[in-house]
Structures are given as C-alpha cells and as structure tokens.
Amino acid sequence: MTPTAAPATTGALLGYARVSTTGQSLDAQIDALADAGVDDERIYRDKLSGASRRTARPGFAAVLDYAREGDTIIVTGIDRLGRDAAEVMLTIRELGERGIVLRSLREGIDTSNATGRMVAGVLASLAELELELGRERRAAARDARRVRDQPLGRPKALDADKAALAVRMRAAGEPVPTIASALGVSRATVYRVIASVETDETDSK
C-alpha cells in the first residue's frame, strides 16, 4: 500500500509511454504526456510485446532508475505500469515507498493528495485480490475435475483477509454492491461482515 504521508512535488516531471506491439503508435500517449507538462526528453518509451516482463522493458527500468524522491511520474493509464495486476501493484507500492508521486491521467489518480493515495491503495488491494482469486479459480478448476460428480457444498464465507479488505473498501466509500462483486460474494455477506465489525467496535467502547 502507498504511504499516508504526502510526497513532496518539487522534483522533475517524468512521463512513461508503452504500447504492447511494435506496430502500435506511441503518439497519442506522448501527446497526452506533453499536454500534462512533461518535456519530450523526459518521456520514457517502450514498444514491446505485452508479454514482456518489467525487467525486459528498458524505458520503464530507466524512468524508475532516474526518478528520485519528490519527482512525479505521469502515465496515461494505470495499466501502463505493468502487464498484469501483480506488476501494477508492485509498482504502485514501490513508488509510494520511494516518495515518488504517481499521476495517471485516465483514472485521475494523483498520489500527491490524500484522495489519490487512497484510490491507488484501493487499486493495489484489488490487484492483490485479483491475483488471489485467480489462484483460487485455478485450484477450483483442478478440484472440479476430480469431484465433478460430487454434490457441491455451501460456499465459504469471507476469510479474515477478505473481510478486512471489505471493511477497508467500505471505509473508503465503495458501495456494497461493488464490494460484493469484487469479492465474489453476496451483498448480504458484505453487510454481515460490516455489521460484525461495527458491533465489535461498539462493544469495545
């Protein structure tokens, strides 16, 4: 998660643009970054396969190496930070820990303010959840092949980690239907988790 303290924004404006194939154009991203105030010589670029890992993207590696505390990295969309949820999550976390501001033009994220840091934190949490759910789906698919003819049991309730995430998302202003959809449970389950936490807090007073 990104830190709660606001990074200083007195440093350089840096831009990063990426396309997934060499046949695509970077022009639209570069124009958007220029409109956001980034000088052309400070826009780092990658034209690589979408399968390229972070270590195989020289432009991305260069902007991360150049950036210092107080600098701002601007991207046109949060998905430019990585090829999958894991890379996006790790990059958001790394920039926050280094005191580097992240601005994403499409999503309106700016981690120099509290709202932007909260949104980035929620995105990182959702990315982490996506990875966990992906692992669970793959495990479930394997299990289903073994027990396809057996009756299904009652679905499990939220575990402690997902329950805590539901509470954090609700505290951040996310509506219950959105939380339920993200976690793959019913609205009633989310309401029960939130009510349980509120009851515990009341009892502790």
Any key phrases for this structure?
alpha/beta; Rossmann fold; 2 domains; globular
Q: How do the helices and strands line up, and which of them pair or pack?
A:
Layout: E1 13-19, H1 27-35, E2 43-47, H2 58-66, E3 72-75, H3 85-97, E4 101-104, E5 109-110, H4 114-146, H5 160-171, H6 176-183, H7 187-204
Parallel strand pairs: 1-2, 1-3, 3-4
Antiparallel strand pairs: 4-5
Helix pairs in contact: 3-4, 5-6, 5-7, 6-7
What would you say this structure looks like, in words?
The structure is a single chain. With 205 residues, the chain is α/β, with parallel strands linked by helices. The chain has two domains: 13-130, Rossmann fold (3-Layer(aba) Sandwich), CATH 3.40.50.1390; 160-203. Helix content is 50%, strand content 11%. It has seven helices and five strands; from the N terminus they run E-H-E-H-E-H-E-E-H-H-H-H. The protein has helices at residues 27-35, 58-66, 85-97, 114-146, 160-171, 176-183, 187-204; strands spanning 13-19, 43-47, 72-75, 101-104, 109-110. The chain has a five-stranded mixed beta sheet with strand order 2-1-3-4-5, sandwiched between helices. Helix 5 (160-171) packs antiparallel against helix 6, helix 5 (160-171) packs across helix 7 (187-204) and helix 6 packs across helix 7 (187-204). The chain starts with 12 loop residues before the first strand and ends with a helix. Mean pLDDT is 81; it is low at 150-154.
Brief synopsis:
With 205 residues, the chain is of the alpha/beta class.
Name the helicity range.
40-55%
Mean pLDDT metric: 81
Q: What is the third-level CATH name, the topology of the largest domain?
A: Rossmann fold
Secondary-structure arrangement, i.e. CATH architecture of the largest domain: 3-Layer(aba) Sandwich
Poorly predicted runs are 150-154
For the record, the CATH class of the largest domain is: Alpha Beta
Shape: globular
Query: How many structural domains in the coordinates?
Result: 2
Corresponding CATH superfamily of the largest domain: Resolvase, N-terminal catalytic domain
Order of strands, widest sheet: 2-1-3-4-5
Strand-and-helix sequence, N→C?
Answer: EHEHEHEEHHHH
End-to-end Cα distance, whole Å, is 29 Å
Provide the gyration radius in Å: 20 Å
Q: Which band does the percent of strand residues land in?
A: 5-15%
Total beta-strand segments: 5
The helix tally amounts to 7
For the biggest sheet, the summary is: 5 strands, mixed
Structural class: alpha/beta
